[in-house]
Task: inverse folding
């Protein structure tokens, strides 16, 4: 890595950010100006002075820090702590799913529950870091397309920072996310079309005005917030790695981020073992460009035409901008990609709720459905330790549960009384 700071400067640095690098052509850019994508159109990735950070970011140093996202600040891009925009991003729980582990035939099954974050989803990680860095670099107004949760998160953090925010979402997006954007004071538009249509409008607006386009992977810093999922998992495992991590995949920032975190943790010495977790990208059969590309061993995905509908709305991305980075993460870790159908998602959501007491989002439920499939196929072994990433709380998806509770006739309570007297 090219060091952006001298050794003397780096000793007391809040961030060891060095430069930006294109994920495809490797062209480098300075980190002290607002950037979008590389001139080749590919995402830019933040790079750090890892040798310098190695002396500051140690397990011992981390042990005395608050359990929040910003504990890894040396390998986050915000230069000064005073520029951090926060809504209290605490480390999220890594729950043991003992009943489901036994039923699934794996040694250990864990759930990384991102529903505990502000705005109820993992999108808060990317928004916290992305908004903080955008403001630090002078952005006054931010704009983005969204399937829902990213919009509500970025709107909330923009409000916290005192910045204007424009959000465009497809009409089919979760209505609760539109409400959240409105409450946060964002300019909200609903598009009669897909996420791709919304993205095209945002790109045109940003090209013609001072709105900063923060679409997924069209700015460099959302991924830096998302990679802290990986940092937290490895730390919660005592600075070792599980055998398998299953991630819902839409734009793919989480799986790209975890892969990036793995490399950085090894480079600075936080992870000493050679073993890597096998990463799994999980999508809905309604829109599954990554599983199709993985099955062909392709380096990038073909656009998925005419996506269907799914409760796991966050996976509906027909052609992720970072498709080649997602696939690289899978190939580098001997991982795979799986598409699951609606009935599998619904059954998995019910199983996690009824067996373990956690109401996960449909995207999170999809990872358990994929886990069961991979265990049945023998790809996941009975000796494996497995982590499921649930990207948000199921409370943001009221339509995912369609069954109405039974109505009790007070004059003839029937079976309910039988249950009480058992």
Result:
């Amino acid at each position: 890595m090219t060091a952006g700071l001298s050794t003397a400067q780096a000793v007391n640095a809040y961030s060891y950010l060095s430069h930006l690098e294109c994920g495809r052509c490797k062209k480098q850019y300075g980190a002290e100006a607002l950037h979008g994508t590389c001139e080749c159109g590919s995402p830019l990735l933040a790079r750090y002075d890892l040798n310098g950070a190695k002396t500051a970011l140690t397990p011992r140093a981390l042990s005395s820090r608050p359990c929040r996202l910003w504990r890894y600040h040396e390998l986050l891009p915000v230069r000064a702590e005073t520029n951090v925009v926060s809504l209290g991003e605490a480390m999220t729980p890594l729950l043991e799913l003992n009943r489901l582990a036994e039923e699934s035939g794996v040694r250990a099954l864990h759930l990384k529950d991102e529903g505990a974050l502000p705005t109820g989803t993992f999108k808060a990680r990317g928004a916290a870091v992305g908004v903080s860095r955008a403001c630090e670099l002078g952005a006054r107004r931010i704009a983005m397309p969204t399937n829902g949760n990213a919009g509500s998160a970025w709107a909330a953090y923009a409000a916290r920072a005192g910045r204007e925010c424009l959000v465009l979402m497809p009409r089919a997006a979760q209505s609760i996310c539109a409400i959240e954007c409105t409450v946060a004071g964002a300019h909200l538009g609903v598009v009669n079309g897909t996420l791709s249509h919304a993205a095209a409008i945002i790109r045109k607006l940003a090209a013609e005005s001072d709105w900063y386009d923060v679409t997924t992977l069209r700015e460099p810093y959302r991924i830096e917030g998302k990679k802290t999922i990986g940092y937290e998992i490895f730390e919660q495992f005592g600075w070792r790695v599980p055998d398998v991590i299953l991630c819902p995949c839409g734009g793919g920032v989480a799986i790209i981020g975890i892969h990036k975190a793995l490399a950085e943790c090894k480079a600075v010495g936080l992870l000493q073992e050679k073993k890597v977790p096998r990463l799994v990208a999980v999508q809905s059969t309604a829109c599954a460009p990554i599983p199709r590309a993985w099955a062909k061993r392709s380096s990038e995905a073909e656009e998925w035409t005419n996506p269907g509908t799914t409760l796991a709305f966050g996976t509906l991305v027909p052609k992720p901008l970072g498709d080649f980075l997602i696939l690289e993460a899978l190939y580098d870790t001997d991982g795979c990609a799986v598409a699951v159908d609606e009935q599998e998602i619904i059954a998995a959501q019910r199983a996690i709720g009824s067996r373990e007491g956690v109401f996960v989002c449909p995207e999170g439920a999809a990872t358990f459905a994929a886990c069961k499939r991979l265990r049945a196929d023998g790809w996941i072994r009975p000796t494996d330790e497995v982590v499921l990433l649930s990207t948000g709380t199921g409370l943001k998806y009221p339509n995912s549960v369609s069954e109405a509770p039974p109505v009790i006739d007070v004059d003839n309570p029937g079976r309910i009384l039988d249950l009480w007297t058992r």
Q: What stands out?
A: Confidence is low (pLDDT under 50) at residues 6-11. The two ends are 67 Å apart (CA to CA).
